Amino acid sequence: MLKEQLKILIKLATIDNELADKEANLIEKIGKANGITEDEIYAMMKNPEPIQNLETLSDDQRFEYLYNIIQLMKIDGKVYKSEIVFCQEIAERLGYKKKAVSELSKGIFSDPSITSDRDELKKRLAKYSIK
Fold first, then answer.
1. pLDDT tens, 94-127?
2. What single-letter DSSP state applies at residue 110?
3. Which residues, listed in sequence order, are joined to residue 129 by a DSSP beta bridge?
4. Does 128 or 131 have the greater pLDDT score?
5. Which of helix, strand or coil describes residue 55?
6. pTM for this one?
7. Could you state, in order of their start, the residue ranges of all structural domains in the chain?
8. Are 104 and 124 in contact (CB under 8 A)?
9. Letter string b/e over residues 28-61, b meaning 16 or more CB atoms within 10 A of that residue's CB
10. Annotation: CATH topology of 2-126
11. Which superkingdom is the protein from (predicted)?
12. φ and ψ of 129, to 5 deg
């Protein structure tokens, strides 16, 4: 399922028609940390695939997907309307209301080295679940 998550991250990272170094580095870091080879990651970046069904994910997986795409949206210090709309669409496909993106975004930092209290964010996000 991690490859599916990387597809989503790649789609978001390239929504503005460019892949910033910080975005590529975060995607690479997430992929490598989860056992995906550098070659596989770069192949996915060169030839993005369509996003599959996300409805079979566990609550924790849904949270992690949304957390990671919001962090990626913020990592380059520029947030575009098209990125927000994409995150909202993914949130809905994950079983959350669109407002979940703004709620979660408040507690996620653009710098991945600054960690958030994920348990607290999960609690705040629960009220936006439509599942």
1. 899 999 999 999 888 766 667 778 888 999 899 9
2. S
3. 96
4. 128
5. coil
6. 0.74
7. 2-126
8. yes
9. bebbeeeebeeeebeebbeeeeeeeebeebeeeb
10. TerB-like (1.10.3680)
11. Bacteria
12. -75, 135
